[in-house]
Design the sequence.
């Protein structure tokens, strides 16, 4: 069975002791790991959380985003250099967490648009930044998995086809693809076909409902999803990512204006869904 994770952004984007009882309960439910947002929390808090996860036997993955002042696809060389430095800082914090994977749309700045389609220079600039930090991440034991987002949150990589195109330019074994069923539900014609297309480059996977609520409560076709994952023999993480209003600052930053589900409903029922689908399709 693939390892099952849960992204604690359902509670908070901040790394603090308030997350410790959440992690204990996730472990009790049966989760193999937890996923954390790497942003502006104090540096010492990452080691504290990482140590607690190690103590209770939870593995770790992480997620991050880039802002306009660290945009890997900016035409300004200074901003692209700042992107590289920011990613190295994030990789250091992932190392503090003992994280195995760093995912997220760090190929470009979140919700920064150019009022046009992506251009070749932007793919080249992004690839240069990602390739430039790939060895640094590999030395830290962190796999980089940039994520395709829906058209309302980015424009460089909305689909697996665009993400694959970027990764071929990056051309580094430590930079692989991430698939999220929420974004794919918007951008891909068929989830199964998209999974099979990206399979040779696939390194991380988010189980997310169409509304970011409890997996299985909406219209994402998880039978199609899990059958395709089994068909391509995917062995990586299956991590639930759902959002709430529990952390208002974070919720406001990503346009979450209501609670879709309660966090523990997501965690408990989502775990049951993944276990059931895994058994059904032999994952």
Sequence:
């Amino acid at each position: 069975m693939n390892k099952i994770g849960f992204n604690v952004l359902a509670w908070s984007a901040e790394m603090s002791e308030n997350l410790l009882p959440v992690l204990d309960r996730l472990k009790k439910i049966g989760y193999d790991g937890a996923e954390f947002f790497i942003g502006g929390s104090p540096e010492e808090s990452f080691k504290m959380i990482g140590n607690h996860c190690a103590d209770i036997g939870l593995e770790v993955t992480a997620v991050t985003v880039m802002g306009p002042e660290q945009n890997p696809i900016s035409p300004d060389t200074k901003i692209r250099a700042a992107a590289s430095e920011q990613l190295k800082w994030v990789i250091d914090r992932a190392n503090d967490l003992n994280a195995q994977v760093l995912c997220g749309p760090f190929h470009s700045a979140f919700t920064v648009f150019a009022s046009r389609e992506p251009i070749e220079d932007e793919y080249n600039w992004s690839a240069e930044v990602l390739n430039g930090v790939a060895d640094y991440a590999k030395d830290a034991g962190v796999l980089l998995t940039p994520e395709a987002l829906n058209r309302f949150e980015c424009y460089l990589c909305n689909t697996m086809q665009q993400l694959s195109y970027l990764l071929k330019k990056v051309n580094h074994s430590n930079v692989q693809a991430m698939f999220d069923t929420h974004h794919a539900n918007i951008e891909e014609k068929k989830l199964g076909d998209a999974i099979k297309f990206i399979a040779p480059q696939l390194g991380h996977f988010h189980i997310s409902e169409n509304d970011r609520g409890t997996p299985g409560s909406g219209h994402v076709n998880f039978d199609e999803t899990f059958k395709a994952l089994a068909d391509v023999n995917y062995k990586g993480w299956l991590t639930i990512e759902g959002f709430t209003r529990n952390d208002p600052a974070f919720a406001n930053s990503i346009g979450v204006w209501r609670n879709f589900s309660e966090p523990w409903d997501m965690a408990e029922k989502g775990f049951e869904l993944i276990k059931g689908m895994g058994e059904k399709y032999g994952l």
